[in-house]
Amino acid sequence: MFSATLGWKALEESIEEYGPMHPLTQLQVDLKGVDPDDAFSSIPYEKGFNLLYYLEQQFSRPAFLAFFKAYIIKFANCSITTDDFRNFLRTFMQEHYPEKVKIWDAIDWNTWLYVPGFPPVGSKGRSPFQSSQIEQVERLAKEWQPVLQSEEQISPSIDLKTFTVGQKGESYGWTICSRS
Predict the structure, then answer these.
(1) Cα(76)–Cα(97) distance, rounded to whole angstroms?
(2) What pTM did the predictor assign?
């Protein structure tokens, strides 16, 4: 969940940059007349990840992985639309997991795809993902903040040898950002 939590932070920053009601914060956007450079952000990646993660939770991991395998086989080397994806998901569930079609029917696709801002699983400052690794990074960053304003030495309460490469990079980023 460490990467998912970092992705949520990137999503928060992008939505803040555009504004929560900006059309480019929707998952599915109309790019007619829009400079692609203006539309590039983490939003489609992170909102898309959140939708896929949500679908996996709703349908169950085994059912969703079976769907995903069939999806990859069917659409390898193809471009498809969102409607193609949704229709294939419903058809797959209907054929292989008929009891799960009611789950597909209950998903608020309109909100997921067309409502600007955060996906329906979280909000600013409220990530749907919890990670003890992130909590360690946050605690370490808080320990370092007073030191950055003074000349005193720090002896962190967390053993950095246990940190993953991602945690070390994120800690460094938070330390540099807190100096500004």
Answers:
(1) 23
(2) 0.73
What is the identity of the amino acid at 117?
A: G
Compute the distance between CA of residue 136 and CA of residue 53 in angstroms, rounded to an integer. 24
What residue ranges do the domains of the chain occupy? 2-114, 132-179
Crossing angle of helices 2-18 and 165-179, in 10° steps, is 30
Q: What is the 3-state secondary structure (H, E, C) of 123-166?
A: ECCECCCCCHHHHHHHHHHHHHHHHHCCCCCCCCCCCHHHCCHH
**Start-to-end CA span in the chain (Å):** 28
pLDDT tens-place string over residues 105-157: 999 999 999 999 999 887 666 666 665 655 666 666 676 666 666 666 656 66
CATH architecture, range 2-114 = Orthogonal Bundle (1.10)
